[in-house]
Structure to design on (1121 residues):
């Protein structure tokens, strides 16, 4: 049985903008995303982080711990998406194409369960759902 | 001299020293407009007659026009001398500052140059200045068919300038500023698609997408109503892009927006002949073909015998209509009838065209079909004039024809190119011999009216003897002008007795064999100039310099220059640009005949050997500036009598290679290259550094294959090893690592059989470079060490220190910082001792890299700054680019992403210009990463189930962002309840 449409239909959502505190002194949002992804194994269990700024380690750990306390939550920060639904927790650092896909299909960010399915398929090397119409018979293969 | 102020771009106005002059409307004003339309050019009397009277010619029209000229001169008063009589023609002399059309043209040229330099703001200002010359419709207060034609041309030009200015404004992000202006323009020029396209871009960029789509719909309706036509493809593409809410695109550059090719506007037309005259009928035919080609890819062919003036006509007309082609003008001499060289290769011409249009050299596909496809793609949506001069046949032209609407191609050929007419629908302009009147005017312009009047009959005989062939008339006229003591009658007698064959050939329009006329000029030359003329026949062409001629002659450059001046004085050669001389291919054919018949083989061989030595020595001098590459190997000394180009700096070196590169390749490609195997190998060696720096893999492969064959013929194993090393490098550049490895294996095998340690050092150095490119630093280090030992043993300090730098570099990459530092110290000490700044810079590059690796980023930046300063001072662009790339790395490591990206982009531009694929890919990867970061900065989201409390999670997100240097910047946003 699919659980792609779990929970209630209503959600609380906040969309916000992020900016560097000082343009020349950021570690990069991609670094943040990679730190969070590195914090989790594929099945969502924590791993020990190495060679990262201790303040950043603490902050990432705090974020993971916090979201663990939710039943149904999604966080997106730049290329990072983190999704928690029931006992499953996933984090993923999006490529440019994947980020663009989420921009075009933002609804999936309101479904933690669907987002987990998408992250799992991306991690397994699956392709993004295509936006292209089916190829017509006159098109070259 | 009285100052004039003349305005054609509005009501006709003329002031002499600030005082308005009333020019009578009617024929006087029309003649003034015609003369100023060709300002500083010669307008034959019969052309003025046709322009003023059309088919309604009065009795004795020429006298009528002469009277009108008289009226005009009286009106000009103190400036009457500005209207000059030139034989049976007139010329209005006027400075750029005095005539609005010339000022407009100057500003337009300036704008084009600024745009090509990327100075868009200033280009817009220059275009505004150009447009500021208009004060209403051109010649607004005159009437008549000729004036109407001139007015249409000028006003069309104004619209083209306006399009270019607004296009640039949009590129500069000024959509909001130009929207209202565009609305007004479109209201007036409702069916001009380009303006509607610009309006759609502007509206879309301002967020008024619906209005942009409405503008398209309105245009479609207008076109259907007024012309029964649909919007053109680029506009439909723009419409589709806006519908899909894609990025605003310029319909004139669909290919550019899809492919990574920056737009570049080529301006390749050679200088127009200021004495060009006549041919007004053919000019009008071409004008008509251009008008008729609107909306298609136009094609016209000028055909005629050699020397009849096809090129002069094509170039003059091309300059005249250049403003109709805002995306540039391409010009190629296909050399289809060159007596000494095969015609230009289509793939090579396409390569040059693509680069001129903005395609980076490393993006050029190898195959002809692929190049044709890319050429057509790049030209799609652009309005480019393509001039293909001296085509041998239709097959030579077809690959170079644009197919998309907007461009126009003009071909010249001695062949009738009937194939193009039949299959491509080419319009043909047959160019016959000059009319009697034009031939007379051409000759008289050179010898002077007084002399012509004194010997009127002799002039007519000379015109007849020259068969009214422009080239022959030019030569004879120049000869007669240079010999005022000779009577024209004796010259006519001489031609009468020697030109029978030529006259027959010329009058039948079947061939081009004006040998007799050439002989007349040739035989009159002094012995030094005659020798230079003959030796021109040994040069691969198309042009040469004074030192090259001095080498051919085996004389000091001053003597060669004097000989060239003498040849130029009698028009046997031209000087298309400062310091370079060229000869018409008919004359070069004649020169080649002369040298074959008059000069012994041994002497010809010696001259060719000196020429090759000239190129080898000059290439070595240039290569020192460009790459420091050719140092370290002693080539055979040049034979006596060789003159070397004076190359003072990097710019001169780059210019020399740019001008001579094709000549050097042509020498290497000869079946039996002059000067023997030793010089073939030497030429290839001298070119290797330039080719590597430019990423010219296929050329390097070809040159080194010839060098290897030469080395094998002569049994010189040492040279074989070096050539195999470069063949390996060529394959590396072409991306074939297996082939590269195979060549190095052959080189390695050969080194066992020779004693020279230099060759072994070279092979190990090549292995080091190869391993470095593949990120196999440990292997690279080992090879570098071996290489250094052999170079040391060979006593080659230059190459030894190249190897020492490589050892330091790969040690640093492997984290062996102490060893790396030791090698950079050695390099620095040696470079400081010998006063070699590039060596000092290389050492600082290494120190900077070590500091970066060890996390001392500020120190790294200091070293990189020092390295960059030196490389920049020496103009070693690729090295400067590499330093900037590393500077970007250190800035990025400090978290200064924006500054890092700026450094990387700077490096990217240079890598792209030099076509260094490997480096370009690497730096673009870094920029791509920056792009991801920039995209990510834009937004964030927290979404939880409706029954959950989001504040804890929000706080954790804030703390995480803070730890990585970010913050939530829109504090006013709040959680809202949403329905899934």
């Amino acid at each position: 049985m699919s659980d792609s449409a779990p929970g209630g239909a209503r959600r609380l959502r906040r969309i916000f903008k992020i900016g560097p505190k000082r343009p020349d002194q950021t570690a990069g949002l991609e670094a943040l995303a990679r730190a969070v992804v590195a914090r989790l194994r594929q099945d969502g269990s924590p791993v020990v982080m190495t060679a990262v700024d201790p303040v950043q380690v603490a902050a990432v750990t705090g974020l993971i711990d916090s979201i663990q306390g939710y039943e149904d939550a999604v966080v997106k920060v730049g290329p990072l998406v983190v999704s928690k639904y029931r006992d499953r927790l996933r984090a993923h650092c999006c490529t440019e194409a994947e980020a663009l896909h989420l921009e075009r299909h933002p609804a999936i960010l309101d479904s933690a369960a669907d987002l987990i399915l998408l992250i799992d398929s991306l991690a397994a090397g699956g392709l993004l759902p295509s936006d292209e119409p089916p190829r017509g018979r006159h098109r070259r293969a | 001299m009285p100052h004039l102020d003349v305005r054609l771009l509005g009501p006709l106005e003329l002031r002499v020293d600030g005082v308005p002059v009333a020019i009578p409307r009617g024929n006087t004003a029309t003649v003034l407009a015609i003369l100023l339309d060709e300002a500083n050019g010669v307008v034959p009397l019969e052309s003025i007659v046709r322009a003023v009277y059309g088919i309604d010619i009065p009795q004795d029209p020429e006298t009528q026009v002469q009277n009108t000229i008289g009226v005009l001169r009286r009106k000009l008063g103190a400036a009457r001398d500005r209207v000059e009589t030139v034989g049976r023609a007139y010329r209005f002399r006027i400075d750029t500052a005095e005539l609005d059309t010339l000022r407009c043209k100057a500003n337009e040229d300036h704008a084009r140059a600024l745009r090509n330099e990327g100075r868009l703001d200033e280009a817009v200002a220059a275009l505004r200045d150009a447009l500021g010359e208009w004060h209403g419709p051109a010649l607004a207060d005159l009437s008549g068919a000729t004036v109407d034609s001139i007015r249409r041309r000028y006003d069309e030009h104004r619209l083209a300038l306006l399009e270019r200015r607004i296009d640039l404004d949009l590129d500069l992000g000024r959509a909001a500023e130009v929207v209202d202006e565009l609305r007004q323009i479109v209201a007036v020029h409702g069916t001009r698609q380009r303006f509607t396209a610009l309006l759609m871009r502007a509206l879309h960029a301002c967020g008024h997408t619906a209005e942009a789509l409405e503008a398209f719909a309105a245009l479609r309706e207008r076109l259907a109503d007024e012309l029964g036509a649909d919007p053109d493809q680029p506009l439909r593409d723009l419409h589709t892009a806006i519908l899909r809410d894609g990025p605003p695109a310029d319909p004139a550059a669909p290919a550019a927006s899809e492919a990574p090719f920056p737009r570049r506007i080529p301006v390749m037309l050679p200088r127009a002949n200021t004495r060009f005259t006549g041919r007004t009928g053919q000019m009008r035919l071409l004008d008509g073909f251009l008008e008729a080609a609107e909306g298609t890819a136009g094609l016209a062919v000028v055909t005629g015998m050699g020397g009849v003036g096809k090129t002069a006509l094509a170039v003059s007309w091309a300059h005249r209509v250049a403003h109709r082609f805002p995306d540039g003008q391409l010009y190629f001499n296909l050399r289809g009838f060159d007596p000494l060289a095969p015609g230009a290769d289509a793939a090579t011409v396409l390569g040059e065209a693509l680069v001129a249009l903005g395609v980076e050299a490393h993006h050029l596909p190898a195959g002809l079909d692929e190049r044709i496809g890319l050429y057509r793609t790049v030209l799609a949506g652009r309005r480019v004039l393509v001039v293909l001069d001296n085509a041998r046949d239709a097959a030579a032209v077809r690959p170079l024809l644009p197919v998309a609407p907007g461009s126009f191609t003009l071909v010249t050929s001695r062949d009738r190119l009937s194939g193009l007419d039949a299959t491509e629908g080419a319009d043909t302009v047959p160019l016959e011999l000059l009319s009697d009147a034009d031939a007379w005017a051409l000759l008289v312009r050179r010898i002077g009216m007084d002399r012509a009047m004194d010997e009127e009959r002799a002039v007519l005989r000379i015109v007849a003897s020259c068969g009214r062939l422009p080239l022959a008339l030019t030569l004879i006229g120049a000869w007669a002008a240079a010999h005022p003591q000779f009577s024209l009658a004796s010259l006519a007698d001489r031609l009468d007795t020697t030109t029978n064959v030529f006259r027959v050939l010329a009058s039948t329009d079947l061939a081009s064999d004006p040998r007799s006329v050439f002989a007349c000029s040739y035989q009159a030359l002094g012995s030094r100039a005659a020798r230079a003329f003959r030796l021109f026949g040994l040069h691969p062409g198309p042009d040469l310099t004074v030192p090259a001629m001095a080498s051919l002659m085996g004389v000091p450059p001053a003597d060669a220059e004097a000989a060239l001046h003498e040849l130029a004085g009698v028009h046997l050669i031209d000087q298309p640009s400062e310091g370079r001389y060229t000869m018409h291919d008919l004359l070069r054919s004649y020169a080649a005949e002369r040298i074959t018949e008059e000069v012994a083989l041994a002497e010809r061989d010696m001259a060719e050997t000196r020429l090759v030595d000239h190129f080898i020595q000059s290439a070595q001098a240039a290569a020192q500036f460009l790459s420091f590459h050719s140092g370290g190997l002693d080539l055979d000394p040049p034979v006596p009598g060789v003159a070397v180009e004076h190359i003072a700096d990097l710019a001169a070196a780059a210019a020399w290679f740019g001008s001579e590169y094709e000549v050097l390749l042509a020498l290497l490609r000869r079946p039996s290259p002059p000067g023997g195997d030793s010089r073939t190998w030497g030429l290839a060696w001298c070119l290797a550094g330039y080719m590597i720096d430019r990423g010219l893999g296929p050329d390097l492969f070809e040159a080194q294959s010839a060098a290897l064959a030469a080395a094998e013929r002569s049994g010189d194993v040492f040279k074989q090893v070096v050539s195999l090393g470069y063949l390996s490098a060529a394959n590396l550049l072409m991306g074939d690592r297996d082939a590269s490895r195979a060549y190095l294996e052959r080189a390695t095998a050969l080194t066992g059989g020779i004693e020279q340690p230099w060759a072994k050092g070279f092979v190990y150095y090549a292995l080091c470079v190869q391993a470095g490119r593949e990120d196999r630093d440990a292997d690279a280090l080992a090879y570098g060490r071996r290489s250094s030992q052999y170079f040391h043993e060979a006593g080659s300090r230059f190459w030894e220190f190249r190897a020492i730098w490589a050892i330091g570099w790969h040690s640093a990459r492997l984290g062996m910082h102490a060893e790396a530092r030791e090698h950079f110290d050695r390099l620095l000490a040696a470079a400081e001792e010998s006063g070699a700044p590039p060596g000092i810079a290389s050492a600082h590059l290494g120190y900077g890299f070590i500091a970066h690796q060890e996390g001392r980023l500020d120190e790294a930046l200091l070293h990189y700054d020092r390295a960059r300063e030196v490389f920049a001072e020496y103009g070693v662009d690729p090295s400067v680019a590499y330093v900037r790339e590393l500077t970007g790395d250190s800035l990025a490591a400090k978290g200064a992403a924006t500054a890092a990206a700026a450094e990387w982009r700077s490096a990217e531009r240079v890598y792209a210009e030099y076509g260094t694929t490997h480096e370009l890919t690497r730096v673009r990867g870094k920029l791509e990463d920056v792009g991801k970061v920039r995209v990510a900065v834009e937004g964030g989201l927290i979404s939880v189930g409706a029954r959950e409390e989001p504040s804890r999670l929000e706080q954790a997100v804030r703390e995480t962002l803070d730890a990585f240097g970010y913050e939530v910047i829109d504090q006013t946003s709040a959680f809202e309840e949403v329905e899934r």
User: Anything to note?
Assistant: Chain B touches chain A through 53 residues (CB under 8 Å). Residues 246-261, 499-513, 933-937 of chain B have pLDDT under 50 and may be disordered. Residues 827 and 833 of chain B are 10 Å apart (CA to CA).
